[in-house]
Amino acid sequence: MIAIIVIIAVLVINPFTGFRNSQALSGTAEEILSALQQARVKTLTAEGGSQYGVHFSSSQVVVFAGAAYNASSPSNQNINLSSVVSISSVNLAGGGSDVIFQKLTGITGQTGTVVVQLNSDATKTKTITINGNGISDVN
User: What pLDDT score does 2 carry?
Assistant: First the structure.
């Protein structure tokens, strides 16, 4: 009797776990896209008289003020990623893991891609593309 209940539970829970993970992947990609857009808008509006950028690590995205990322800055806006996803690669022009937007224009020299993947299945990914105009998109 217990074995039957376990089998039924596995059959019911597995599809929901897959759906939840898929939603976490899509949601995280949208959060990263939103962080990039937020930093660009803050730069274009010269909020605080500064330019802004986004720093990427495997489990976190940080919106920061200034021309360079400073991990200890109290003005950093840390966005922790869901525990079921991680940033698997950051491929930006010039290397590094920061996208910095220029005052007045909102353009960036750090064009490229950021790839987010499910920790449980590396074949499930979303790619955020950043172009020279500072516009980002998710594929």
Answer: 74
